[in-house]
Amino acid sequence: MPWARGVPWVRGVPWWGVLSSVASPVVLIGGWTIAAVLQPRPFNQVASTVSALAAIGAADRWVMTLVFLVVGTCDAVTAAALRPAAPTGRVLLIAGAVSGMVVAAYPENARGGLVSHAVWAGLAFAALGAWPAGAWRCGRSVPWGLRPAVCASAVSVQIVLLAWFVGELVAAAGQVGLAERFVGATQAIWPLVVVLSCRASALLAERRALRG
């Protein structure tokens, strides 16, 4: 589209970026649900973390391990496709995706795995929570999901959820699994929201250009 040159958000997001952004939350939420069902004993998803499903000794731990790898790959692909976003945000999204995949290499209950698991999981949560802060752009025609106020709100919500999760970990209050799932689901869904807003803005701009 010649009329879109020089305006990154007008070019939109390619179809494969839409596919990867949809797949990420579907695979994550579906994966941890299936992995919990496969456990021989009832698994308390409110009190137990997602990582416990991939820990040494968990039944069919390969399911959750594969989920970490697939979701990380999807997020990295989405970052590559999200051309309307500022480069810093895309780099942070890729960093979070890679960190999430590395988590699979350091399962809980493995020798030396707990510390490494916690470090990489922390890096993943931090990067995936912060990427909107580096992705925003200014301008009246910027997609809704990349506007400064919206990006700031997205980061703020994720900070609150992360604080809840950390508080549950420290206090052992019994809802650490629920808190983690809220954080994970939010971080998986937000790229999809941004992608859809970019697609909608590109479609609207194209229609305006054709009418003009």
Task: Furnish the topology, listing elements before pairings.
Blueprint lengths: L14 H23 L23 H21 L5 H17 L9 H23 L12 H24 L4 H36 L1
Helix pairs in contact: 1-2, 1-6, 2-3, 3-4, 4-5, 5-6
Low-confidence stretches: 1-10
* β-sheet strand percentage: under 5%
Domain count: the total is 1
N- to C-terminal distance: 14 Å
- Shape designation: elongated
The average pLDDT score comes to 90
The computed structural class is mainly alpha
Jot down its keywords.
212 residues, 6 helices, single chain, disordered N terminus, mainly alpha
In short:
Helices cover 68% and strands 0% of the residues.
What does this entry look like structurally?
The chain has 212 residues and is mainly α. It has one domain. The chain is built from 6 helices and no strands. Helix 2 runs antiparallel to helix 3, helix 3 packs antiparallel against helix 4 and helix 5 packs antiparallel against helix 6. It is elongated and about 65 Å long.
